[in-house]
Specification:
Helix 2 packs across helix 3. The chain is about 20% helix and about 25% strand. A hairpin with an 8-residue loop joins strand 2 and strand 3. The protein is of the alpha+beta class. The strands form 3 sheets. Strands 1, 2, 3, 4, 7, 10, 12 and 14 form an 8-stranded antiparallel beta sheet that branches. The protein has a 4-stranded antiparallel beta sheet with strand order 5-11-8-9, with no helix packed on it. Strands 6-13 form a two-stranded antiparallel sheet. The longest helix has 16 residues.
Length: about 270
């Protein structure tokens, strides 16, 4: 699955599709876990839909939950092919887990996912920072598949992070304002894929991406997005990023500890 052409496309385009990365039993277990999370979002969860609109919800750090849902997400991190896939695409010798995130757009949800880069939101710097957007439902442009601006991770731009809900910025965040992608980037320069449950998109931490609302009348769009770090990814204690737990971490070095375990190559047991 991770052949030379796939690796080349990841580095050249900033995003590449990986088919059939998760098996059916894993998908069913994650669907049950998502339902549990939706019924009790954590303090890191958000509801983005306006009153009267279909639901668009997200949550983070599900692997830290003490329930069966948390166990399902921990298994995804430690026992699935995701970490190895990210490592081979990045050209990393080892991979640490960064964090997990869940997005659910119910049928008819009008709320878009605004155009953004991931890395400006996160207290990291480095080239080997990879996301894997893993599908639990069939998805296409009509139901809100993510679109990526081809090659935008290579432009040297660092766009100022904005909160998804209201569009306000993070205090102290640096970077340029995000340009009007819809007006300036031709459809031919946007990457998107129709996908099936178990498929995933691997994407670079600086590639610009976003998604439309879910215009389908019947299909939910639920997905997991997991982020991974190679050996050149280090803690960047700059202002204007999301409040991760970085107690005791040393700026300029790799994130360490129970929350950021090394997951590939695998050892004889979990860290």
């Amino acid at each position: 699955m991770i052949d030379d052409e796939t690796i080349h496309r990841y580095h050249e385009d900033g995003a590449v599709v990986l088919r059939g990365l998760l098996d059916a039993s894993t998908i069913e277990r994650l669907r049950d876990a998502v339902q549990t999370v939706l019924s009790s979002l954590s303090a890191h969860g958000n509801e983005y839909a306006r009153p009267g609109e279909a639901r668009f919800a997200q949550d983070m750090f599900m692997a830290q939950r003490p329930d069966a849902a948390g166990a399902a997400f921990r298994s995804l991190i430690h026992d699935s092919p995701l970490a190895e896939a990210a490592g081979r695409l990045m050209g990393a010798r080892q991979v640490r887990f960064f964090y997990d995130q869940m997005f659910v757009k119910e049928p008819g949800s009008a709320a878009p996912t605004p155009w953004h880069q991931d890395l400006p939101h996160r207290p990291l710097r480095g080239e080997q920072i990879c996301g894997l957007w893993c599908l639990l439902d069939p998805v296409d442009l009509d139901s809100g598949t993510v679109e990526y601006v081809r090659g935008s991770h290579r432009g040297g731009y660092w766009y100022r992070p904005q909160h998804f809900g209201g569009g306000s910025g993070y205090d102290g965040a640096r970077g340029e304002p995000m340009p009007d992608i819809d007006a300036t980037v031709a459809p031919a320069d946007r990457l998107s894929w129709a996908m099936q449950p178990g498929d995933a998109i691997a994407f670079h931490g600086l590639v610009i991406h976003g998604a439309r609302g879910n215009r389908s009348a019947q299909r939910r769009r639920s997905a997991m997005s997991l982020r991974w770090m190679g050996e050149d990814a280090v803690f960047d204690d700059r202002p204007g990023t999301y409040a991760f737990n970085t107690t005791g971490q040393v700026p300029g070095t790799a994130l360490q500890g129970e929350l950021y375990p090394r997951v590939w190559p695998r050892t004889s047991g979990r860290p």
